[in-house]
Amino acid sequence: MPTTVYLEGAIKRDPESGSVAIRTIFPEDSSPQLANMAWLVATANVGARHTTSDAVASWEDLYVPVSGDPESS
After folding, report:
1. For 30-47, what is each residue's pLDDT tens digit?
2. Among 19, 38, 46, 72, which residue's CB has the most CB atoms within a 10 Å radius?
């Protein structure tokens, strides 16, 4: 698991494919089924899918909410 913990609403982008991922409310530490739903990835050519934090760890951060932001609640 990556060392950075992202709050729900964080957005990352894959510079190679142009795909973007948004952090969902699903926790990765409570069950294996929910870990696979930590991030929702939107692509321009194959639709959407869910993935883990490890899969998007190297992607660039576009938006990282901080605790207390109205958008992070």
Report:
1. 787 787 899 999 999 999
2. 38
Number of domains, the chain: 1
pTM over 0.85: no
Q: Token pair for residue 35?
A: 């870990």
- Is 35 a domain residue? yes
The CA-atom distances, in angstroms, between 10 and each of 27, 39, 45 are: 14, 9, 22
Strand residues in 1-73 grouped as ranges (E): 11-13, 20-23, 39-42, 48-51, 60-63
Q: What are the residues whose beta carbons fall under 8 Å from the beta carbon of 27, sequence distance 6 or more?
A: 34, 35, 38
Whether residue 3 is contained in a domain is answered as: no
